[in-house]
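cron nightly-structures :: item 1 of 1
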Amino acid sequence: MKTIGCIGLGIMGSRMAANLQKAGYKLVVYNRSKEKAKQLINDGAIWANTPKEIGSVSDIVITMLSTPEVVKNIALGENGLLNGMQKNSLWVNCSTVNPSFTKEVAQLAQQHQIRYLDAPVAGTKAPAENGELLFLVGGDQSDIEEATPLFDIMGKKVIPLGKVGNGAAMKILINQLLGQSMVAFAEALVMGEAMGLEKETLFNVLLNTPVVAPVIAALRPKLEHSEYTPNFQLQWLQKDLHLSSISAYENGVATPNINTTKEIFAQAKQHGFGEHDFTAVYEYLNLRK
């Protein structure tokens, strides 16, 4: 069985790695904070001191990192991943990054004779824990087939999208819609309450109309009980909206709603909600009543 390197052990990456471990894969793990790897190590994973070290002993490396800057820092440099990976090994990048960046990284990997898959995921903490993620994958079909046994353990479906960059493109579109839908519903809640309607009534009526995004129904408990333990941190959705705006600029597309939504999340972050679940944007908007 292949040795799998896992870099990035936050809310998502730790659960993805745990599912691979439960399936019998030998894991080598790395994270900027070793504390987040503690449970995996206790269950038999091997700790690597650098990304370079993890690359040198892994057949496939999976990265699940927060920003393009972190991906680049992990990949490059004397102790970087690309300086350690064996020629023709496979790097599966599940981080949410913008398409132009993922193409740049794929070229760097190719220069090191490393194969690269652009494989961000749709889903948050519970789907990651339950192995129910959706993989949006750009890259060579043969590489996708090699990684599919891993995808099948960590997720419920793989959608091949053609060339590298297409996975990243689809992911930022999904998160763009998530952010816009969340702000639209949060504004409706705030306005409805300001006009004297009960919150429970607003949920019961609005969620049963076709104009509300289906995802909002699953988010109702967080909004209803002000329970913002993060499944997906607000600061990372703001980052993804920023990546969408970069991509819009690069492609000559006007996207005023993306930029407005991004700035609402940025303001919520400035007010201390960055590490809360993204649904806490409702609390921020409520401050403005």
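cron nightly-structures :: done
The mean pLDDT is 97.
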